[in-house]
Amino acid sequence: MNKQEEISFNSISNSILTPMMKQYLGIKSAHKDYLLFYRLGDFYELFFEDAQVASKILDIVLTKRGKQNGDNIPMCGVPYHSATHYINRLLKKGYSIAICEQLESPEEAKKRGYKSVVRREVMQIITPGTLMEEKLLDSKNTNYLTSIAEEKGNYSIAWVELTTGDFYVTTCSKNQVVNEISRLSPKEVLVSYKLSSDPIFMNYKNIITVRSNNIYDHKNCLQRIVQYYNVNSIKSLGEFSKEQLVSAGALIEYIIHTQKNNLPKLKVLQKLEREYFVEIDASTRINLEFDKNSINKEFNLLNVIDKTVTSAGARLLKTRLNSPLKNSSVINKRLDCVSFFYNKTELRTKIREYLKFFPDVQRSLSKIFINKAIPRDLDIIKNGLKISTMISELLRINGENLIDGINSLISQIYGYNQLVDELEQALIPCDNIIENQAFIKKGYNKYLDELYDLKYNSNQTINELRDKYRHKTGVQNLKIAKNNIFGYFVEVTSLNSSKLDEKLFIHKQTLGNSVRFFTDELKNLENIILNCDTKITNLEKEIFCKLCDKVKHYFDEINLVIDSIANLDFYSALSEIAIQNKYIRPILDDSNTFFIEEGRHPVVENFQRENFIPNSANITDEEKIWLITGPNMAGKSTFLRQNALICILAQIGSYVPAKRVHIGVVDKIFSRIGAADNIAKGESTFMVEMTETAYIINNVTEKSFVILDEIGRGTSTHDGISIAWAVFEYLYNHINCRALFATHYHELTQLNNKLARIANYTMEVKEWNKDIIFLHKIIPGVADSSYGIHVAELAGLPKKVINSAKQILTNFEKKEPVQVKDNYQEDIVYKENEILKILKNVDINNITPIEAQKILYELKSKVNFKE
Fold it and tell me: Which positions in this protein are listed as binding ATP (predicted)?
């Protein structure tokens, strides 16, 4: 994944380098795979090849610092306070960054020796999968880091989200690895050197990070997991296979490697059973446009249904959309929760108003645990808990009408008043905090208040002490003054010096007309004033750390709050989109039913200006597979996709765009739609088509739902018909799954006479005054034409081409030979000769602008072929 080439350190002579540069090279040699951000004062500096790479990408000045082997050492730098912006740009280019910090000040270094170099150490390695910085993250998306291991043909995938602590592991077959990567959309994938050459990772080179083989040693991985969770036995966490422990252990090693001493708190490792979820392969996810669209990022299912108002809810929706359920009981419990909000408009509206103000508590909580929080994170925790309590109270008012699914969430978002009160008393609201200024409320800590009073009112404090001494000594002209040599001192006239108590006032200096003294009290006050800012900073840090510790004590409980809020957002958002777009509650059970009355494509109808034409699908035991014919642009592909999307929505627990829906849960969804070359792998359109079709045939079951469009179109007509026919028969005879099979090969409609449980359907077309009107309605029957020439005409092909195509088609239908016309070439040659003749007669040196314009018009008329 990392594009950086290693520096040849052996060629660098350390003897001619400065101590600082020697230190740099020592640190760099241990982090060759990363761009090293080396802290120098207020900047992160980069040297040698790192500087050349970074300066080009970041568009910053490449300068120099010192020499090596007679050549200037390239250098560039970025301000540390704005480094996040530059780091993000480097990450997007595929680089990872090692952050090397100063661990002491130059003054502290000198105490160890005059020539001592400031101690520095890499404190964090930032990679795409280990981001913790809020500015680098998308609040609505997960940022998964995954690790893949293999043991005797069994593959295991572990994945973690560092900012939320979610940690899972699952096992799959080799051909399912790509599907899992597609489902998770990880930002970084860890594999061993041994596994990295496996062809299944060829398309993921930009996110692959190769780790040494010994990191994937089972014994080492087991030990890492036990040590991280501080348990005596792995059985304390659950039962895991060998490959699962290896993938999870390698992932923990990488977290330790990148996060150093600031390890995030991960939730207990959970084993995800893949059989609980609908299997959807990578190609199907692309074809159905779950959350991506190659042309327009808004034209996808997630964008349409996402009415969530919290970051946690948005992440949960995306996760569930990518993992539909197979358990009808669990699906119906989700639907019950959506129905609860669907039927309670006033409550839903109020809940969503509260949810809008629920901040991203999850990521702030993680920052607190790894000691990277700022005061704003504590304020976010406080506000999140306050809002969750308000939501809980609002739901409790409706207690008699609550269903079990909602009731179970209430107890998890209530009961943190003590922590909220503590944070409320301590913190100035983050909206009112000015950068680098106070964030602790006045009155929370008496000593801190005194320090601030002293900082802003030091003159008054000195004057109060002066008045105290005047009263005690009776010397009314006693002064407290200050200079750069002595600091603060008490000064009286020589005549009054004898009136001062020698035990209290210690002699400092005698001048011509005055005597100067100091007192222990004055010295202490001076130290306090001079070190006021430092003491304020240290005390605020101490208070801040104590508050963070209190939050850490509630770490698990607050995570339950977040999970509950995310679920409430998920359910209320799905009810909101259902009401807005007139979705209905589907019936889900374990039958083989597939009935959709007046279904609509959720994405197309959302962006289509004119009214969307709904279509029904009723796949029964008598009509197990639908064979669909009809022209392009008539709506076949839209019909296929909408049925798959309705199925997916239903099985995540959502209402669906239709009049009535009854679906027996499907275990897998397959789609073969569209044509796409995989040039990088040397695969043609037809090869891709056949590979995807083979995957479907080899993995489909009776409980699956399959949509196939134009199987066999990437080869010759006879080959294509043969393949499509054979695939159709196989699905019918050997699988008996629910399927929609669209084709241009009208010969396949003959299967209706051979196979009993299939049905022919077509897209309705109306001919009017020699025009063709696509009605976008599916009806029983067989298409009598593909209307390809009409579609070509709509696309704007010249009339001459269209007329020729019509004649050729007529000849084909009459089985007459096609005459190849050469009149196009004759026209071109003739016109060319005329044009050359005109140009030869033009006197360029004497022609007027008007004459030139006339000639130009004449030339243009010559190249406009007659139709």
Answer: 630-637
